[in-house]
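Listing S7. Sequence submitted for prediction.
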Amino acid sequence: MKEFILYKVIPLFILAIFICVMKSGEYLKQSFTEEDDVMYYVELVSTEIDNGHWSEAKTNISNVKDAFEIVKKRIQFSVERNELYEMESSINRAIGFVSARDVGGAKAELEEIKFTWEGLGK
C-alpha cells in the first residue's frame, strides 16, 4: 500500500496540479479588481485617441501597462513567454505612438494588444 501511494498516487497528484496551473491562464487573465482591467483601459485609450484627448490617452496607456504588470504576475506560468513579450512590446510601442500623437500607429498597436490579449492562455 505504501508503494502504491508513493509511486502512483503522489506522481498523479503532482501531475494534476501542474496541468491545472498550465490551463489556468484563461481564467487568471480576467480582471479581479478595477485596477487590473487591461481591456477596459485599452478601450478607454482608443476612445480618447478618437476624441483627440492625448493627455488622457497618455495617462490611460500607462494604466494599461500597470494593469498588465499585475496580470502578468498571475499568468506567467500558464502562458507562453513569447506571448508575454509580444504583449509588452505592443504596449510599449503604443506608449510611444501616444506620446508622439500618431493616430494611425497608436490605433494599430491597440488592435495588436487586443489580438494578443485574446490569444493569451489559449
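Caption to Listing S7: primary sequence and predicted C-alpha cells for the chain studied. The two ends are 39 Å apart (CA to CA). The chain has a mean pLDDT of 90.
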